[in-house]
């Protein structure tokens, strides 16, 4: 099966969090949740400590909010150290990328960036009583796709830190640094 979800170790960890709901018995909502995420039915907004989403299913929109606990100061310090070391050892990454080896280093250091369902505070305004509902599951699948595309997001969700800020694009020159006389001349 192609790794449609979890193409990177960063996204895969988030996919695994969703799929722990199948540990005891198959969750019939998962295929539907995957289909919603795959078809861009979940529009995400991410910030430190929270993911919010508008999820549209058959024309009906639901609003999901998932709160994620921030890392402790100690974890944040450890994570920043590992990130700085890893970025120094792996120059020239694409914007938003993080080395796969860093994910393994996080694991070895006991740092988990994906949050188990039990530790998330997830709300949805749909009327289903079942939790997590399909909207919350679709949001988590969409999040794993986003994290696959941009691994830095996995870390940004858990801490506010300049360590993961993007380096400026070397091809980009602020307009103020251009001399109009020569640039337009
Ligand atoms: Zn819902």
UniProtKB/TrEMBL annotation:
GO molecular function: zinc ion binding
Keywords recorded for this protein, A-Z: Metal-binding, Zinc, Zinc-finger
SWIM-type domain segment(s): 113-144
PANTHER family linked to this entry: SLR1429 PROTEIN
Protein name as it appears in the record: SWIM zinc finger protein
